[in-house]
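Q: What residues go here?
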């Protein structure tokens, strides 16, 4: 099955002072990755998805755009779609990306540094449409390995475990966004889970048929690996089990990357304690905007 993304107009958007945003394609890959590489801790998801899928892929669930200034220098990149991500310090570029997102019928969430997402929101709403929900997150990062008692069952998931993993991954999405992807897009969601398992990016600890721990590698670059969908079975929470699994997994990942990071809700003190026990440290405030579904 192939995921099909809605098409955007390929006509550049003309802005004031001859500045423009353009749809990006694979001819721009080297330039875009170089631009995103300036601040890898802010751009790890886009960089990884471009490396994995290219700039034009249904797996990105959206389209990439670049913003150029009057000298035609690239000063902003955004993925606009189901998950909207952007990197720019230019308010003109940010305004253009917000306007484009507003015209995207399937835009679901916007993720980024808190101060830039707040600025994005001011352009997106202009006192009118408000987001459905805002999650205030903390970006945690770890750069050094640590000694840990090994969890023998921790390993990459197998394809035959999809039916065990998919409902748990959907549960973590519901807890974060209030939307169940197994209800909204069951076939697409299962396909994405299956693909991630095939890429060996889902790590699990399964014992006696029970999923005790799960974490997904959402993006994977030489600078940053980003984890998401971390789950610990309720009866194993609060006793250090989750921290052991996180430490062991992070040690493994640090063999091939400079750092591992994740986002945690600012109100989730239990999760923060688990990550701190695993050696993670706070780095930056992040926000996630969950957008209102557009009327069809």
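A:
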């Amino acid at each position: 099955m192939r995921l099909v993304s809605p098409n955007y107009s390929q006509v550049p958007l003309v802005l004031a002072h001859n500045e423009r945003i353009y749809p990006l394609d694979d001819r721009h890959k080297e330039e875009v990755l170089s631009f995103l590489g300036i601040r890898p801790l802010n751009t790890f998801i886009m960089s990884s998805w471009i490396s994995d899928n290219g700039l034009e892929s249904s797996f990105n669930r959206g389209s990439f755009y670049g913003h150029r200034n009057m000298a035609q220098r690239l000063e902003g990149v955004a993925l606009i779609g189901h998950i909207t991500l952007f990197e720019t310090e230019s308010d003109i570029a940010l305004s253009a990306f917000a306007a484009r997102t507003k015209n995207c019928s399937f835009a679901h969430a916007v993720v980024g540094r808190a101060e830039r997402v707040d600025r994005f929101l001011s352009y997106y709403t202009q006192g009118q449409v408000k987001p459905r929900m805002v999650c205030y997150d903390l970006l945690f990062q770890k750069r050094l390995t640590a000694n840990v008692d090994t969890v023998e069952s921790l390993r990459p998931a197998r394809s035959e475990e999809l039916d065990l993993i998919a409902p748990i991954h959907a549960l973590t999405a519901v807890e974060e966004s209030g939307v169940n992807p197994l209800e909204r897009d069951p076939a697409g969601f299962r396909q994405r889970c299956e693909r991630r398992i095939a890429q060996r990016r889902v790590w699990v600890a399964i014992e006696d048929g029970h999923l005790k721990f799960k974490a997904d590698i959402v993006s994977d670059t030489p600078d940053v690996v980003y984890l998401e969908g971390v789950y610990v079975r309720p009866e194993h929470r609060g006793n250090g089990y989750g921290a052991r699994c996180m430490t062991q997994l992070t040690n493994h990942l640090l063999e091939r990357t400079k750092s591992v990071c994740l986002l945690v809700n600012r109100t989730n003190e239990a999760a923060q304690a688990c990550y701190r026990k695993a050696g993670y440290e706070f780095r930056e405030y992040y926000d996630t905007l969950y957008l209102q579904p557009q009327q069809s």
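A: Context that may help when evaluating the design: The chain has two domains: 13-130, 142-285. The longest helix spans residues 162-177.
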